[in-house]
Amino acid sequence: MDSFLTQKSFLQSFFLYVCFSMGKIGVGIFFIISAWYLVDKKVTPHYAMKKAWILEKEILFWSLLLLGASVVMTKKNLVTVNMHSLILKSIFPLVKGLWWYASSYVLFLLLLPALRIGLQALNQSIHKYLSVLVIGVWGIVALFPRLGAINTANGAFGMALCLVLIAYYKWYMKPISSRSLICILSGCVAVVIAWWACIRLVSARLHVGLAYMVYLTQGWPSLFPCIISFCIFILFSRLHFSNCLVNKIASCTFGIYLIHTYPLVNDLIWKSNIVPVRMSSNPFFIIAYALLIFAICALLEFARQSLFSFIFGKNDGKTFDTLIDKMARLQQ
Questions:
Q1: With contact defined as beta carbons under 8 Å apart, do 214 and 195 qualify?
Q2: In whole angstroms, what is the distance from residue 61 CA to residue 15 CA?
Q3: How far apart are CA 97 and CA 118, in angstroms?
Q4: Which range (10-14, 211-215, 248-252) has the least confidence?
Q5: Which residues are within 8 A (CB) of 265 and not within 5 positions of it... i.e. 6 or more apart?
Q6: 250, 212, 266: which is closest to 33 by C-alpha?
Q7: Of all helices (H) and strands (E), which one includes residue 165?
Q8: Which of 48, 137, 188, 203 is spaced 20 to 30 A from 276 at the CA atom?
Q9: Cβ neighbours, 10 Å, residue 205
Q10: Model confidence pLDDT, tens digit, residues 21-73
Q11: Looking at the predicted structure, is the pLDDT value of residue 211 above 70?
Q12: Could you give the CA distance from residue 183 to residue 234 in angstroms, rounded to a whole number?
């Protein structure tokens, strides 16, 4: 994260900062899309566990397949990977946190039935109080470094905080006008950019690393990126647009995340001599390189979807339903 503070060129530093921020905002949008529809859905424990089961199959598929690739490439001395740690993480990817978002989201799914019932049990005034508290502690107080508030809002807990705000907006508030959303979005973007500029200036003057302070307004799930993500989601949700290709690409984004952030692939992309890339190189090259990575990972995920469709058919959770039915019969 220090890279966009230590770049000599202001434009290069700003470009890297924007790229990093867009990634975090993308994570926020990815979660908000899911939470927006789940908050009004009757999520039972059975439904939550079934969704977690389906996700676990995809996660295990990629973790074990990429683990095999890691073993082969390590033996051929193409990459250097800590295999002892990687084997354990790949066999138990959710428990060991191989992918932080996957682990956090599955835990969030398992907690969702209770969270949703708890929020519905609150009256509007208490829910409003809780929302204001979330914004105050999670957003405003977190701007002050070393207070630790931002560190308590990571993972599944951060997702639960997002759910509190999304539920209050959807259940009690009137829809915010598009003009107001654009103003809020512009204001948050201005705050994030101004904060980055100040931190870069102070870091250059004092010759110290202050990247952790940039995270307070730019990391996820800190408040400002979540507000930006929410505004973008609401604005685009008001557009009536449907395209089969876009929907197909959207269905593979989670798989793309799993593939390109796996330790082996991440090292191949950014650290190894096989794919030499310097973050200070031509911005257009970086964008083209990112699109190439996206396209390759998307093709791999399409292949995985076709394989699962052939093996499991359209009812991907049928095995889980069968196991639950057998367990229920044994208890009778």
A1: yes
A2: 35
A3: 27
A4: 211-215
A5: 66, 259
A6: 250
A7: helix 155-172
A8: 203
A9: 8
A10: 787 888 889 899 999 999 998 889 989 999 999 999 999 999 999 999 888 88
A11: no
A12: 13
Whether 212 shows a pLDDT value over 60: the answer reads no
Q: Assess contact for 221 and 161: CB atoms under 8 A.
A: yes
Question: How much is the average pLDDT of 250-278?
Answer: 79
Rounded Cα distance between 275 and 76, Å, is: 17
Angle between helices 45-75 and 283-312 (to 10 degrees): 120
Distance CA 281, CA 299 (A): 27
pLDDT in tens, 67-79: 998 888 877 766 6
Would the pLDDT of 90 be above 80?
Answer: yes
The tokens of 24 are what? 């975090």
Whose tokens are 């940039």? That residue is 214
Instruction: Tokens for 7, please give them.
Output: 């770049």
Give percent helix, percent strand, percent coil of the chain, each to the nearest 5.
75, 0, 25
Rounded (10°) angle between helices 45-75 and 83-91: 150
Residue 320 has pLDDT above 80, yes or no: no
**Is cis: bond before 221, omega within 30 of 0?**
yes
Rounded Cα gap, residues 283 and 298, in angstroms = 23
pTM for the predicted model, two decimal places: 0.85
Six-digit token string for 37: 């529809």
Of 94 and 221, more confident: 94
User: By the 8 A CB rule, do 214 and 193 touch?
Assistant: no
Distance CA 198, CA 216 (A): 13
Place of tokens 């428990």: 95
pLDDT band at 149 (very low <50, low <70, confident <90, very high): very low
State the Cα–Cα distance between residues 42 and 240, nearest whole angstrom: 26
Q: CB-based burial of residue 83 (10 Å sphere; 0-12 exposed, 13-18 middle, 19+ buried)?
A: middle
Confidence (pLDDT) at 4: 47
